[in-house]
Amino acid sequence: MTFVIPAPPVASVPVKGAPDGAAFPVHRIYCVGRNYVEHAIEMGHSGREAPFFFMKPADAILPAAEGSVATMRYPSLTRSLHHEVELVIAIGQGGRDIPAERALDHVWGYAVGLDMTRRDLQNDMKKQGRPWCIGKAFDEAAPIGPIVPAAQCAIGPDTEIELKVNGSVRQASTIGKLIWSVPEVIEHLSAAWALQPGDLIFTGTPEGVAAVGPGDTLSARIAGIGTLDVKIA
Ligand code: MN
What share of the chain is helix, strand, coil (3-state, %, to 5)? Predict the structure, then answer.
C-alpha cells in the first residue's frame, strides 16, 4: 500500500517490564461514564443508571514510561481542567457480544489512566444537548502509565485507586466500588461495538474530581498495577 501523504504513526503505550521495549498499539479509546455511585452523585445524577460510553481518539493518549513524569500542556479553551483517575483495561483479543463470564479472556493487561476533562466545555455541551467531544476528546486528554500484563496484576474488589495533586489526596476509592465491573463493562461495550485488539477502556472515576492548573503535579496510583505521574505545563 502506498499513501498520498505520510501515514500517521500508530499510537502506543509502553508495557511494564517488556524486555525488548515492545509497546502496546492503541486502536480505540472507550470510556465509561459515571461508573462510581459517589461520582455520579457529585455530577448531579442518581448513580443508578445503565453504563454509557464515549470515546477519545487513539492519539489522545499521553503515555508515561515507567518511572518517568509525563508533561501535559494545559489545553486551550478551558478554565476548568479536571482530573479523573481510572482503571484502564487493555484488550488483547477482540470480539462482539462477549459474555461477562468470558470477558477476562479478552484482557491483555491493565494500566493507570487519567480521563482529563475540560469540564466547563463539557458542561456547556451537556446543557445544549450537544456531543461531549470538545470536553473529553482533545489532544493529550488521556495520560496513561505503562500497561501491565494481566497475569502480573493483583487486582480485586479491595484494590485501592487514588489520585494525589501536589501530594494531597483528591480521589481515593476501591475497584470494588465500580458500579459495572470489568467483565460487565466488556459485556456491555462489546454489545455496541466489535472490540479489537489494541482497544483501551477507561472504566470510570471515583468521586473527588476537581480542577488542576499549570505547575500542578498529579500522581495517580492503583495498587497492584502501578503509578502515573503527570506535570501540567
Ligand atoms: Mn471518566
Answer: 20, 35, 45
